[in-house]
Amino acid sequence: MKEFYTFGWYASKISPHLPKKVFQPVPSRLFGGLAYLIIAISCLVVISLLNLHLLWNFLISVVLGFSFAGLGFLGHEILHGTVVRRPWLRDFLGAIAFWPLCTGPKLWRKWHNSSHHVHTQDEELDPDAWPSLEKLAKSRLLRWVYRIPFAIRAFFAFSALTITFTLHSIRMLFYFFKDFEPKNRKVVFWQFLLPWATWIGLLFVIGFEKWLFAFFLPLLIGNFIVMSYISTNHRLNPLVPVNDPLANSLSVTVPKWIDVLHFNFSYHTEHHLFPTMSSKYYPLVKEHLKKMWPERYHEMPMGKALAALWKTPRVYYQQRELIEPRQGNICGTLGNGLDPTRIQHRKVEVEQELSHNFVDSAFKKVVKHK
């Protein structure tokens, strides 16, 4: 993909073809959240008050984990203002929905709405973007991580999806905290602290064994479900100089019933075009995207996207390609030569030193195409 267009450019082309109702909030989405909330509270009460067999507690934990993820997807939608528009009500409901995942509404809107959406796949400005080879060379931690063989690293990377959302949320708190006005910092801090205090307090009330099933295991499951989507949203796409959703985003396909349970979170390109539109209407947006720009639009089944993530490196080389630094293997990104059904790597030769000041012997070279 050689030319880029802004999300506003695409939106201006599609908007005239959409009914006016799609730009209105959809409060009825809260019924789904209420169902998840009732299920979650019921599961917590059952685990806390009854002495069930471990197998039953495990099965209830799975239901809780799915509920945590479902509430997180709804919280994402609420905090974009697509369910209710009043700021205080939006933040209150968003806080409840994100309570299981321990993320506060003010931090989320700063991190996700104001930074990720505005600067999607910008290496410097998008807090969710993966690093380039140059950034890798500047980080001791990343250089250490990339000494680990690729197969082992891929296994642990996928295992880490069970904790990634939680860890990244904590990192974002420290990353953005100084950007908030002093009067808002206390609010951000308490929005972060209160959910954790609730869950840690539950530990002392019901005991460690029940707490594992009531919170810890569901949190791992919720993390994994949420990150299975988030990891496919952009990580197969290139870094871009222009925030072009058809270049930097991927929509995945899942069974319809899963879309219902997950509030159409799979429609990610559509979301980046119209972040303040209820995801209820994203199938309609998708129809227009596939009619107007079929050669630019990226979608694939969730399973295929996750398999492609397993097989490809996560370090960017010259923005449009991905490189495995140890072996010098390079593959394309979506729109730039990547075929998810047949991922091919090509070797590159060492050309010159990237830096002799801070890069160790394993990363002292920059690669160049043969």
* H/E series: HHHHHHHHHHHHEHHHEHEEEEEE
The percentage helix is: 40-55%
Give the number of DSSP strands: 8
Q: What is the C-alpha radius of gyration, as a whole number of Å?
A: 21 Å
Structural class: alpha+beta
Shape: globular
Number of discrete domains: 2
What is the percentage of strand-forming residues?
5-15%
Gap from first CA to last CA: 22 Å
Mean pLDDT: 92
Q: Point out poorly predicted stretches.
A: 350-362, 365-370
Major sheet size, sense and barrel closure: 4 strands, antiparallel
Number of DSSP helical runs: 16
Question: Which strands sit side by side, in order, in the main sheet?
Answer: 3-4-5-6
InterPro entries: FA_desaturase_dom (IPR005804), Fatty_acid_desaturase (IPR012171)
Keywords: Membrane, Transmembrane, Transmembrane helix
GO cellular component, one term: membrane
Organism: Thermolongibacillus altinsuensis
Report on the architecture of this protein:
The chain is an alpha+beta fold and 370 residues long. The chain is 55% helix and 8% strand. It folds into 2 domains: 7-304, no CATH class; 314-368, no CATH class. The protein contains 16 helices and 8 strands. The strands form 3 sheets. The chain has a 4-stranded antiparallel β-sheet. Strands 1-2 form a two-stranded parallel sheet.
